[in-house]
Amino acid sequence: MSDFLLQHYLLRSAERCPDQTALRFEGRELSYGGLLRRSIQISDALIDTGMEPGETAAICLDKSPQAVCAMFGVLFTAGAYIPLDTSYSPVHRMLTILEQSGTRFLVTDGANLLKLLQGANPEQLERLRLLHILLVEGGAELDDADFGMIVQAAPEQPLRHLYKSRRQPISEDLAYILYTSGSTGVPKGVMITHLNARTFIDWCCGYFKPEGHERFAAIAPFHFDLSVFDIFVPVAVGATLVLLTAEVIQHPARFTKAIEQGGISWVYSVPSLWAAVVQYGRLPAGGLPSLRGVLFAGEVLQPKLLHQVMELLPEADFYNLYGLIETNVCTYYPLSEQDGIHGTPVPIGYPCGNTGVVVVTADGRLAGAGEEGELCVRGSIVMKGYYRNPLLTEQSFRSIPPNWGLGDKLYCTGDMAMVNENGALVLIGRKDALIKRSGFRIELPEIERVLHDMENILDAAVVDIQDGEGHPLICAAVVVHEAGSFTVLGLKQAVGKLLPRYMIPDMVHVFDSFPTGGSGKVDRQQLKHEFRKRL
Amino acid sequence: MQMQDKLYEIIASVCYFDKEELHPGLSVEDDLAITSVMIVEIIAMVESRLGVNLEEHVDELLSCETLGELTALTAELSSEHPQGSLPGR
């Protein structure tokens, strides 16, 4: 039996329908034959530069067909790719991830490489110079004499299929590493194997039954876990992926026009995207007839918004999906009109195929119906662990008694949940300092560490509250050395230089000192109360 | 100037800035980190507080790069489209 790997989806579709459009981007199209050809060119070039099976390669490219080719190129090389966030993250964060990953290879283009070089400090510049860099586009603007190893993957190069003569990976090998906010101040890399990803992708193909003639919108940036569905499900069935830029996605009217003109059948996004469409998309009811499926994930879905979107798109089917990067999507819930009418939270539903999801109470029991507890997941959908961080990996899994009949380990999500009267899982909240905003995970201690490192800050605490509509707000409480030279704008600008935009605190308030509890610890509930008073 | 003052007040309240820190040269995206969702919220507040109808111009407002551009465009639209002036309003 041979292992079926992520790149085999592409090989299969390129063989079945080489002329079918695989990718569409800004009016240009790339066929399955073209996607395969370019991916193998990149793989040939990576093997030439010395990339060995099992190694990683970071990809620093904007959302584009080249980025998809680079991902498959790394997979063909028998390696794992690390997509960097070129849209929301400052250069400092990309360089931090490059450093944490210890990767020796970087796939990029001239413009992004220049951005990295210009944003790097002397120490980071030195590390960049040690990388093997593969340019898939551009490069005229660079002085390549500065680098130890920089090569171009030219589109006219003949294919050599070097990957065929090397050790083939197996399903248990890493396919990609997605970096997310880490509570220690350093982003953490979630290791996903071919088997982890395939468990999700194959379930999607079986459950949603997408077809080869359909078109999928690529909404999420490629470093975000929602993009795994966007990229691999269409490739698995030979359908077309339409890449939408951030500019289009952020403009409600342009977004709906792109869906209409692109004849898009499937959209997978955070619910807040649709909140803007409802309000400013200028969309008449039934205005997007090509849409067959609307999938929500990454945020709590509000019943009112669901009701509004259902009224706008009466022909579409709706689903609420749930999962963390560590678990892929592990539960699903087919939505009905009733879910948009009731004032109760929209459920996250039932476990996906080949996946076990249970609720464990605070005293370590399996929760009964209606009982609250931590949502825990098991099965081949769950990550291999955190990259180069065995301690954190160990801490995130819990051993369970043999008499539960659920194997020996569960991944603990940190999300609190319960099972409702219909047997569906319902999210209640978090047990730690992690929040989600626009689908992005944010560890509040990571922001706190950045604030502590600032010159004028004596002490800092970051908490979250909700605004009037239930959206999370990040609130930074600070004690400063010199109040005269402190500005809220200055603090936000400084944080924006080190962390992604979605991690910049919304509210900032200077305290003379923090309220403390009996143990002497900062009383965070009191801080939340102080911020709520300022809303 | 009056429009700028009112707009700064709205932006400061939606994005939790101190109004006094705002100035026209600030970048909407990089300095203020105003997201598209926030701009939509700002537009809704401008409509309700200043009586300006901006519904047809959301895309243009979302494209403003600096606070100065955002203020100038809002002022221009406010003179062109006071609320109730559009068909059907």
Automatic annotation (TrEMBL), chain A:
<keyword id="KW-0045">Antibiotic biosynthesis</keyword>
<keyword id="KW-0677">Repeat</keyword>
<dbReference type="InterPro" id="IPR000873">
    <property type="entry name" value="AMP-dep_synth/lig_dom"/>
</dbReference>
<dbReference type="Pfam" id="PF13193">
    <property type="entry name" value="AMP-binding_C"/>
</dbReference>
<dbReference type="Pfam" id="PF00501">
    <property type="entry name" value="AMP-binding"/>
</dbReference>
<comment type="similarity">
    <text>Belongs to the ATP-dependent AMP-binding enzyme family.</text>
</comment>
<dbReference type="InterPro" id="IPR025110">
    <property type="entry name" value="AMP-bd_C"/>
</dbReference>
<feature type="domain" description="AMP-dependent synthetase/ligase">
    <location>
        <begin position="12"/>
        <end position="387"/>
    </location>
</feature>
<protein>
    <submittedName>
        <fullName>Amino acid adenylation domain-containing protein</fullName>
    </submittedName>
</protein>
<dbReference type="InterPro" id="IPR020845">
    <property type="entry name" value="AMP-binding_CS"/>
</dbReference>
<dbReference type="InterPro" id="IPR020459">
    <property type="entry name" value="AMP-binding"/>
</dbReference>
<feature type="domain" description="AMP-binding enzyme C-terminal">
    <location>
        <begin position="446"/>
        <end position="521"/>
    </location>
</feature>
<dbReference type="InterPro" id="IPR045851">
    <property type="entry name" value="AMP-bd_C_sf"/>
</dbReference>
<dbReference type="InterPro" id="IPR042099">
    <property type="entry name" value="ANL_N_sf"/>
</dbReference>
<dbReference type="InterPro" id="IPR010071">
    <property type="entry name" value="AA_adenyl_dom"/>
</dbReference>
